[in-house]
């Protein structure tokens, strides 16, 4: 494909005070405790009430920075991506009324709906090879004006492949990423956020996994001001499985959020969710909300989710909320775990008393902590690059301390 | 001959009630291959001595010196002291999340030696030491001290002692909380380290028990932040029979 290139953005509408504009109410104004699958969805932002910041899906986020992505017009024109030609993969753009659009899910929040209704075309990545190759899609040209995007990643029946979405540069982006894993396919999707410091990125992923297919889904968030990637993975046919991983490193002032939702619809489905995050520097804030729903027909479900956070300095905040809903008793297993631990002065003293310098001690701890996730990515080159990126992140945030 | 020399060491610690002076002029000289037992009642400052030597930031040195072969240790950082040849086996080793025992040991060994150990010899040494300390191989992949029992933590300390090969080791109540089998295993490890490297040992203990397995050359009785009496191994036996009462009259230590 062509080198990254930005098409001219539409004129930016002047910011207005958010939330004053009246919206038709689609029934989502106040939502009592409910089954996760019954959450309101719509592809039109106007069906959602204006965001106040008090809603559960927004309550942790710094709304002053991102409210415009939920309320204001976005530029939905195409931003070209860069991807090498790889056997077994194809990359093109499809119209927004293509039949594929919407086949993996629908927006559950206002930013997602705003992006959905605005994106003019969708980037369509199709995996058809059975050899298990790797495609890197570099997305670097979003710029700092508010934008919408839509991506559809589709794995043909019995195909295998790794699709890596690499994000860097400036961004002020709300987007939807649909992932369709057809029967027997083995698909890995990795989304890597190494944005510039000021970047804003709200991304909703929707995945549907077919019979005996597997989706390995990996979120790596390192750079950006506000980065939120919320994957909803629906295991809709028998034998479907997913391994969902996340790795994030928040430094001073950074907000990184992820809300994986695993929806066990069919029988004999399996899920493993494992997210790990490190926080260092004043105002570093991470959020993990892990929902697992085991539906009434999901007999034989085997599910486990966990989130672990490592706090490296004072002044950080890690929110971690696991939710498990079980609507059938006939399951193999369902568990969850969440922990947030500190790297403290006593640990530092211990490591130093064995000859290890302070800097090396911190690196040792972070590297060890995050290695478990990095090793799961399934792309040796990317694993190596990310190990180095995490190390660089650590050194940068140490220097800023 | 290496010598660890502690002279007129005075140490205070900040407490909620203000600055508290704990060590009030400690003098001790430990030669290579010597084992010195420091015994004393609770609150006499034994552990403070251990942490002050290692350089824990909570303890403030008010005066005196600790030299290793003439080189002042008190002005060095914690890791510099370790690299100079000091080791502290801790009473309560902390958990280190995310760091496996094997990764930790290799990193420490590399830091102490200034170069990474040759892989094959290192694995062999590690296996041999772990086996001698009756530690299952699965320990290598566990996070440092995470979920370890009290006995496992102490073995892990002695494992480090054996592998890092310091010149002098302070063992801070390494015997506390160990059943007799674990005590023997740990003591054997200490004796092995001494036989292999000529390690000098400062063995801090409340009880005589460990001294049956790790034989001291000298025994020092610690009371109210200084050495109140010293002698040979017979002093430990006497303390076991008589207790510390005769030292405590008139002293006023918490």
UniProtKB/TrEMBL annotation, chain A:
Residues 148-369 form the SUF system FeS cluster assembly SufBD core domain. GO terms for biological process: iron-sulfur cluster assembly. Transmembrane segments: none annotated. Belongs to the iron-sulfur cluster assembly SufBD family. NCBIfam families: sufD. PANTHER family: PROTEIN ABCI7, CHLOROPLASTIC. This is Iron-regulated ABC transporter permease protein SufD. It comes from Herbiconiux ginsengi.
Automatic annotation (TrEMBL), chain B:
The keyword Cell wall biogenesis/degradation does not apply. SMART domains: AAA. The keyword ATP-binding applies. Pfam families: ABC_tran. SUPFAM superfamilies: P-loop containing nucleoside triphosphate hydrolases. Keywords: ATP-binding, Nucleotide-binding. Residues 4-249 form the ABC transporter domain. This is Iron-regulated ABC transporter ATPase subunit SufC.
């Amino acid at each position: 494909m062509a080198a990254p290139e930005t098409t001219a953005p539409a004129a930016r509408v002047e910011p207005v005070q958010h939330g004053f504009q009246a919206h038709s109410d689609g029934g989502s104004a106040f939502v009592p405790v409910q089954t996760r699958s019954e959450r309101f969805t719509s592809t039109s932002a106007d069906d959602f009430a204006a965001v106040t910041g008090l809603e559960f899906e927004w309550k942790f986020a710094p709304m002053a920075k991102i409210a415009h992505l939920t309320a204001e017009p976005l530029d939905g024109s195409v931003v070209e991506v860069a991807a090498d030609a790889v056997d077994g993969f194809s990359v093109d753009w499809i119209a927004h009324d293509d039949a594929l659009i919407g086949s993996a899910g629908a927006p559950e929040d206002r930013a997602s709906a705003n992006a959905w209704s605005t994106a003019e075309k969708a980037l369509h990545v199709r995996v058809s090879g059975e050899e298990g190759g790797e495609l890197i899609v570099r997305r670097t040209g979003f710029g700092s004006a508010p934008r919408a995007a839509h991506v559809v990643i589709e794995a043909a029946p019995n195909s295998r492949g790794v699709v890596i979405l690499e994000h860097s540069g400036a961004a002020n982006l709300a987007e939807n990423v649909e992932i369709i894993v057809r029967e027997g396919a083995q698909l890995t999707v990795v989304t890597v956020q190494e944005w510039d410091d000021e970047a804003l990125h709200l991304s909703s992923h929707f995945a549907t996994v077919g019979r005996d297919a597997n989706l390995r889904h990996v979120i790596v968030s390192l750079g950006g001001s506000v980065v939120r990637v919320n994957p909803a993975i629906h295991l809709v046919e028998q034998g479907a499985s997913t391994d969902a991983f996340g790795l994030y490193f928040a430094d001073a002032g950074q907000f990184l959020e992820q809300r994986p939702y695993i929806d066990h619809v069919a029988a004999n489905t399996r899920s493993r969710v494992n997210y790990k995050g490190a926080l260092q520097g004043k105002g570093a804030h991470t959020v993990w909300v892990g929902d697992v729903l085991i539906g009434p027909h999901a007999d034989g479900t085997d599910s486990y989710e966990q989130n672990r956070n490592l706090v490296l300095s004072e002044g950080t905040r890690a929110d971690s909320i696991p939710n498990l809903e079980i609507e059938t008793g006939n399951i193999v297993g369902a568990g969850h775990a969440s922990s947030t631990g500190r790297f403290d002065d006593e640990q530092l003293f211990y490591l130093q008393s064995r000859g290890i310098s302070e800097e090396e001690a911190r690196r040792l701890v972070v590297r060890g902590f995050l290695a478990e996730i990095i090793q799961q990515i399934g792309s040796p080159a990317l694993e190596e690059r990310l190990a180095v990126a995490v190390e660089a992140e650590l050194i940068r945030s140490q220097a800023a301390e | 001959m290496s010598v660890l020399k502690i002279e007129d060491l005075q140490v205070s610690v900040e407490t909620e009630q203000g600055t508290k002076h704990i060590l009030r002029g400690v003098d001790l000289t430990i030669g290579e291959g010597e084992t010195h037992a420091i015994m004393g009642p609770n609150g006499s400052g034994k552990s403070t001595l251990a942490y002050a030597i290692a350089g824990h930031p909570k303890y403030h040195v008010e005066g005196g010196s600790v030299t290793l072969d003439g080189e002042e240790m008190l002005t060095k950082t914690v890791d510099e002291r370790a690299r100079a040849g000091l080791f502290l086996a801790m009473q309560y080793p902390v958990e280190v999340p995310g760091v496996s025992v094997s990764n930790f040991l290799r990193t420490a060994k590399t830091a102490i030696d200034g170069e990474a150990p040759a892989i094959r010899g290192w694995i062999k040494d590690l296996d041999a030491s772990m086996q001698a300390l009756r530690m299952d191989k699965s320990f290598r992949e566990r996070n440092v001290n995470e979920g370890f029992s009290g006995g496992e933590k102490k073995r892990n300390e002695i494992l480090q002692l054996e592998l890092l090969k310091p010149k002098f080791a302070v063992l801070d109540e390494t015997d506390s909380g160990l059943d007799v089998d674990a005590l023997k295993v740990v003591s054997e490890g200490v004796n092995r380290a001494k036989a292999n490297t000529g390690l000098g040992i400062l063995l801090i203990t409340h009880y005589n028990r460990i001294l049956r397995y790790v034989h001291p050359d000298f025994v020092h009785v610690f009371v109210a932040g200084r050495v109140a009496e010293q002698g040979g191994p017979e002093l430990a036996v006497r303390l076991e029979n008589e207790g510390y009462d005769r030292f405590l009259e008139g002293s006023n230590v918490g």
